[in-house]
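Quick one: structure tokens for this chain, please?
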Amino acid sequence: VSRLVIDCNRPLDAPDLVPPVSETTVIPGNSGLSDKQRAARVDLAWRPFHDAISGIVDRRLARGQETRLVSVHSFTPVYKGKSRPWHIGIIHDDDRRLAAPLISALQRLSGVTVGVNEPYSPADRVYFTLERHARTRGLACAMIEIRNDEIAGDTGQRKWADLLTGIFSNLEPEEARGSRQRAMGKSVQSAS
């Protein structure tokens, strides 16, 4: 379901949950909706989307599996007449556990311009899904925005899928990192 019908990455009380305008284009089908029509859209897409995420996260946590949440989106190269130079952006709030290693890995790639809280930031109200499902549970999370001309065809989609898969495969699980840091702390204390 298009975010032009209902934006699942918005809280139910957001004025742009059912956006009246996309960039500069009025969306006629979204004006004058009754409460019943709006509720039908919530039931069609918003509620099932969030119920599915909650269910997956709850099951993983119940099994004791390390769980991180990543939200992946795309953005236009030009928005309201302004060029957007980033190939990819990592959006994060003050919890940088996942964002920092992602940003670091992406910045090491040749020819890739990385936006840090660009083209959006949590202040733009784009972080709702991560706030609802990760932050409330203390889970590491980040939002990835890929410029849509980068993923317009199979080659670009494969390129970014492979790059991101490689980066995520090399991220150390939090438990292992914590154990390693504790062990390093002990060895430093015993050496001093």
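The first strand starts at residue 21 and ends at 22.
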